[in-house]
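Question (not urgent): is this output format expected?
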Amino acid sequence: MDNFNFYSPTEFVFGKGRESECGKYVKKYGGTKVLIHYGGGSVVRSGLLDRVKASLAAENIPFVELGGVQPNPIDTKVYEGIGLCRSEGVNFILAVGGGSVIDSSKAIAVGALYDGDFWDFYDNKAAVEKALPVGTVLTIAAAGSEGSGNTVITKTDGMWKRGAGGDALRPKFSVMNPELTYTLPAYQTACGATDIMAHVLERYFTNTKEVEITDRLCEAVLCTIIKEVPRVLKNPEDYNARANIMWAGTVAHNNVCGVGREQDWNSHGLEHELSGIYDCAHGAGLAVIMPAWMEFVMPHNVMRFAQLAVRVFGTAMNFEAPEETARLGIKAFRKFLHEIGMPVNFAELGAKEEDIPRFAEKFSVTKIGNNGVTGGFVKLTKEDAVTIYKIALNASV
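Got this back:
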């Protein structure tokens, strides 16, 4: 295990009806004028937005609103939010929604205190050092943004989907009521579960030796998703299954599963080009890309893939041919994704073969440095990216 520092200061407010306590926690963390940031009409129709407003009013905390965040949040909404924060004297941002809303809120938070263009943080021209405090009311278990210091935004000029991060962006508190996920469509539930699994697998595939504790934590999260997602797809109001999935999403990405070990993150980089251009759900893109990446890199460490197959997917270990065990594990992963309603290839996602050179070029520009490679577990070249996209093109269950 490698040396590490672990810092995760977010206060998690978990359970039924806890959104009624938002005002109390905003006040606790110094908020005196709030921007409520949210997405579409679901938070309005469900009454959630009214309950949040009532909780702020009960603490005599004034607020302004900015809705309209879309999946794969865009820079134009961030600029709008930054301007609103400055003109209204906002000193706290409350994100009411899923990962897209939280990511947009974080971008506004860092941009509001920055003299330059907020995109500098996503273009690696500036480091995140300070931001307005952010709180969240989570409505979908997926991105883990409620407990992480990460944010992803798409720049509409060129459709560049890029990430930024820093401890200043970790939410001060996150309200997590599993009941708020009851009305999610099955597809969004499955997309969120896929994102959770991908966050774990980006950490699981490592070159660091002797990391049994985090291996087991990763495997536990994966097994939880495999057990609980079919339950909620059958019964969307299964509170305990929803609760397990929601907490799994947080644990998957607050880095408790990733400390002390090298991580990869190339699958996310490869997927960002798909959802950046096609505006598909991030989880759906990962369902197509991650198994293809796994097939490509599997020979690098066959036994790690065999370990995943045995411990998570219940595959029998073939000691004479561990490669076969490893391949069966990847097949089982893809089959599970298919069974919960996720796409497995480009055609199901709406992507086209002729776009592969463009995907690879954008991936190369963003991820690949002067040495011509990127990644942790296996370092990829631009040509490797093309190969992975081609595997994803015609993948099948």
